[in-house]
Amino acid sequence: MVLWHNQTLFKNIDVFDLDYLPEEYLHRDRQISQLASNLRPALMKSRPINTLCLGPPSTGKTTAVKLLFKEIEDVSDVVIPVYVNCQIINSKQQVFAKIFEKVHGYALPSYGTPFTKVYYSILNKILDDEKVLIVALDDLNIILDDKVMNEILHSLIKAHEEVDGVKIGVIGISTDVRIAERFDIYVGSIFHPDVVLFPPYSWEEIYDILHSRAKFGFYPDALTDEALEKIVDLTHEAGDLRFGIYLLKMAGREAEKRASRRIEVRDVEAVCEDGWKVFLRKGVLALNSVERALLKLIYLSSNEMTTGQLYRQFKEIIQISYAKFHEIIMKLEHLKLIDTAYRKGRGKTRVVIKKYDSKLVLDALNEFKF
Ligand SMILES: Nc1ncnc2c1ncn2[C@@H]1O[C@H](COP(=O)(O)OP(=O)(O)OP(=O)(O)O)[C@@H](O)[C@H]1O
Ligand SMILES: [Mg+2]
After folding, report:
1. Number of domains in the chain
2. Which residues surround ligand 2, an ion (CB under 5 A)?
3. How far is the CA of 60 from the centre of ligand 1 (A)?
4. DSSP for residue 48
5. Does residue 4 sit within a domain?
6. Which CATH number is 218's domain given?
7. Which of ligand 1's atoms lies nearest the C-alpha of 21?
8. How far apart are CA 108 and CA 249, in angstroms?
9. Cβ 18 under 6 angstroms from ligand 1
10. Cα-atom radius of gyration of the chain, to the nearest Å?
11. Which residues constitute the domain of residue 251?
12. Per-residue confidence of the chain (370 residues) as pLDDT tens digits?
């Protein structure tokens, strides 16, 4: 049976948008209940427990907080949840402009309003209305300037000292699990968040999550189990659930293109290379020029290098301390662009391992002029 040109395999293609809130949020019961119990006091007009959600990319941190915020808005008119994406909103002024808008129900009249005026107007309003504010700062580690990050946290956690009786809870979300090391003395001494960890998903967990996504996005039986398993393999290998969601959508389109009623392994294979490219481009986009230069050096070399050898070569191109170099290696590994492993030799040495075909990575890098 073929698919006619006006037919589709997609019941709802929006399901494959990355910011789509999934109907089923799987394998995160522990995290959800820990978060919920930290926020619960707010429903009783008490101050919620400050929380840090930590874990690698695509482990469901944003989704958990958004789902809970949605639920809170449905059941409570005491709590005002404010979701702040620090990738877009990344100064103290912008964060508080966003809170102002949510608390007052209208946007700040102009950007010229002095910060203290905005700040006290928020605090006084929630106190008068007897509300509890919960602010989620998503992708907090994206704010590279420690001073800015600490200023934002500081303003939120000292609010009850400024206006007696004010209740504010903070949820910080970060892929950098060591973010607390960046807190200054003041923030560190009064901000003792409860940590909720989001570990990477196993193969089986990825299978369940993608299976559920497909159930809501495709018509029944559109996706063959073999194709799904192939996508799960690739997702597990990439270590990023977003890659799998993207592959589901692209494979669905590919099957439609050849007018098939079923998505098969060959559709996944057909879109896989482009999938890697998009995925790599995203990774490369997250790097600055020095980091890209190091990635390039790694993928240009034909043999496996120890971190020491690599450092010596890199230093000839760019003057950099070993500590900084090491930080970049960790970032590249965290973004799943490389692997590192210990090898037994004279003592213990660490080698850098390419994760992808060199051409794919170099092509992605060449799209940038630097
Ligand atoms: N447990 C889950 N069940 C269903 N879908 C999930 C689950 N975890 C993640 N997802 C889906 O995977 C994608 C990435 O999840 P999310 O944005 O919540 O990750 P994140 O941890 O915030 O990642 P990042 O640190 O990169 O922002 C989303 O499309 C989300 O719907
Ligand atoms: Mg997120």
Report:
1. 3
2. 62
3. 3
4. P
5. no
6. 1.10.8.60
7. 31
8. 39
9. yes
10. 24
11. 13-17+202-284
12. 566 656 899 999 999 998 899 999 999 999 999 999 999 999 999 999 999 999 988 999 999 999 999 999 999 999 999 999 998 888 999 999 999 999 999 998 876 889 999 999 999 999 999 999 999 999 898 776 889 999 999 999 999 999 999 999 999 999 888 889 889 999 999 999 999 999 999 999 999 999 999 999 999 999 999 999 999 999 998 888 999 999 999 999 999 999 999 999 999 999 998 888 887 887 888 788 899 999 999 999 988 899 999 999 999 999 999 988 988 998 888 788 898 887 766 667 889 999 888 998 998 898 765 4
Ligand 1 centroid–CA 209 distance in Å is 10
Collapse the DSSP code of 158 into the 3-class scheme (helix H, G, I; strand E, B; otherwise coil) and give the result.
Answer: coil
Helix (H) or strand (E) holding 347: strand 347-354
What is the rounded (10 degree) CA torsion for 259, 260, 265, 268? 40
Q: Is 249 in the pocket of ligand 1 (CB under 6 A)?
A: no
Shared-domain flag, residues 318 and 261: no
The answer as to whether 106 is a domain residue is yes
- Torsion region of 118: left, alpha or beta (phi above 0 gives left; psi -120 to 50 gives alpha): alpha
Same domain, yes or no: 191 and 142: yes
275 lines ligand 1 (CB under 6 A): no
CA-proximal residue: ligand 1, atom 27 (nearest): 57
Of 168, 197, 226, which marks where a domain is finished? 197
How many angstroms separate the alpha carbon of residue 331 from the centre of ligand 2?
Answer: 17
Mutate to test the pocket of ligand 1, among 15, 24, 32, 63 (most ligand atoms within 8 A of CB): 63
Task: Specify whether 38 is located in the same domain as 147.
Answer: yes
Together in a domain, 77 and 97: yes
Last-in-domain residue among 131, 163, 197: 197
Q: Which of 13, 52, 59 for a ligand 1 pocket mutation test, highest count of atoms within 8 Å of Cβ? A: 59
